[in-house]
Amino acid sequence: MSQGVPGTPPPKLFLDTLARVSADPRNCGYAENVGERSLREAVVQEMKVAYGGADGNGEVDVTAEDVAITAGCNLAFFASAMAVAEKGDEVILPVPWYFNHEMTLTSLGIKIVTLQTSPERAFQPSPEDCERLITPKTKAIVLVTPNNPTGAIYPPSLIASFAKLAHAHKIALILDETYRDFLNSAHLPPHHLFSKSSVILPTDWSWRSTIIHLFSFSKSYCIPGHRVGLICASSSLIPQLNKALDNIQICAPRPPQLALASVLPQLRPFVKDVAGALERRHTLFKDSLPSRWKVGAQGGYYAFVQHPFKGVDAMVVCERLAKEMGVVCLPAGFFGPVGEGGERWVRFSVANVDDERVRLVCERLKESEETFGWEIES
Amino acid sequence: MSQGVPGTPPPKLFLDTLARVSADPRNCGYAENVGERSLREAVVQEMKVAYGGADGNGEVDVTAEDVAITAGCNLAFFASAMAVAEKGDEVILPVPWYFNHEMTLTSLGIKIVTLQTSPERAFQPSPEDCERLITPKTKAIVLVTPNNPTGAIYPPSLIASFAKLAHAHKIALILDETYRDFLNSAHLPPHHLFSKSSVILPTDWSWRSTIIHLFSFSKSYCIPGHRVGLICASSSLIPQLNKALDNIQICAPRPPQLALASVLPQLRPFVKDVAGALERRHTLFKDSLPSRWKVGAQGGYYAFVQHPFKGVDAMVVCERLAKEMGVVCLPAGFFGPVGEGGERWVRFSVANVDDERVRLVCERLKESEETFGWEIES
């Protein structure tokens, strides 16, 4: 239960369409740097549904000119980081972090300022803590929601607070929403930043001055190997991003762009089914987990769980779980510096396992309480 | 005649294979970061043919562990630059340069040290000039052969001199061979760097200590929109490159990797046909060019040509050619700082035009000598 990869195959409609466009010699040339216009337009329609309401009639202020298609969402983050910061600049990153974000920033010589999150606040980052970390060198705040690795889902009001904070300090808010489509109806819409009129944002609010939204087609449509992601940012920033994209990728692979463009609206039921299955598996995992393993946050692909062994680092627990129990999960230490008490947290992915295996894993965790012979937190 | 894009569709065998692997849900997951093993192995076989002789029996010392597949050759260059240099370091780049190389290095804060080439030496870079530019901050020399934009083909002995120079100074030689397959038999093999025993290299020569070879599948197989390129470098450098690749791309798109892996050897006749057609078009262009337009170098996709208008910058000539003659070509100024007299050079691409159009363009160039009313160099 360690890998953040989809557990179901992509929809047949997508595969058939992809096969058809792939066989067409006219689709072998370069795409536009910012991506196929047809896909950028289709993305806008999906964003209207995702952020405006199920009927797609919400007043979502996004146009195809705000969208750039990338060869995966990691490349989207890489290009965004390059566009807003350079060596010596600072970027605020909540901890636990997605390790590729950390590696990208480090490789670009950008200083990471860590914003610690804690189980007491269900791993929600604090805008107040964040504001104290802002310096003249800060260029961006990065949020991932639903979060990787913790699974924490940030409510719209919290996201709005961060957006206002970034706006007030004239820095970017990079919002990675790779797992956006796995929110249940209680959490919809994910936020109101793209709304033309939102009660929780100032009346003169304009997302374009602040927000860089990232999205991946890998998880929602189960096609990680096809490498398609996107950046949605002010159309005034897109040319700058485009320069970075031109150097790194020229363009994203073209056939999957064309295939997605023509089937996205028809795939809405598929995405909903995947989300529903994931939610049921989250519930099953929570219900099957031995009582002394505590869930700190849960959402998207992940659950962040505190193991019950007193004073034992999760690194050691995960090693024994893998070797002796055949259960693979990742310790908090993999996701950045852990705060006080943080060494006991473990990330489980529920995306790539079936229900039977979830139950089995939970039984093994229970077994480990006796087998490992460590003192159990009462 | 401005675009460096293939003028022919890809082979049907590739398209059919791609359609088949694209329809298979098993091929939608992430590939290995360094690329599909099957493609890396197939690449080694193609390199044996390219560098060892037509029968593939040459003693080419390359293994699948030396190869990493990238989402296009620009990403290969980007990752290589990141792996060898950081902000403040220097990289030597011959001028005229491929503008994406310049932009990538600049965007990474790497200082570009220009190595001027000139028509007197047919735009071949001089290893002696290059050596004088090496400082303690130099991390790499970049060569593109056949060159973009000049079309100059560097002979094996010159490439060997640069390799020895880089080796002596313990810096990397990044060798971008995107247009490698468009050499005629007189120019084969492109170089001897990968040979186990070469008379023009020291007996203890090891390419792995110095060489980072880049290649693109876009031109040879006419599939730029599928974004597949590669890095061939010491297997001891690959893990480092792999870290950069993991952050930028995770992996290259998977279906085109699988399709290429299974058909590469069968596509050798196709690549030869494309190369042959390109060579004939180069000859036609040279023969049709008005006598006062002088070819400085020719090869791969490009010809670098001196226009006959005395004291007129190529920028102005190209503008009028586009507006008044419908002929689009690019002035030397697009490819970096021009040396003395360099402002009169123009790049033509012969890849994306048919024979008829080549003749027509040459007629228009002849016409322009009268129409433009400028003094002609006698």
From TrEMBL, chains A, B:
SUPFAM superfamilies: PLP-dependent transferases. The keyword Transferase applies. Keywords: Aminotransferase, Pyridoxal phosphate, Transferase. Its cofactor is pyridoxal 5'-phosphate. InterPro entries: Aminotransferase_I/II_large (IPR004839), AspAT/PAT-like (IPR050596), PyrdxlP-dep_Trfase (IPR015424), PyrdxlP-dep_Trfase_major (IPR015421). GO terms for molecular function: pyridoxal phosphate binding; transaminase activity. GO terms for biological process: amino acid metabolic process. The keyword Transferase applies. Residues 15-365 form the Aminotransferase class I/classII large domain. Belongs to the class-I pyridoxal-phosphate-dependent aminotransferase family. PANTHER family: ASPARTATE AMINOTRANSFERASE (PTHR46383). This is PLP-dependent transferase. It comes from Cristinia sonorae.
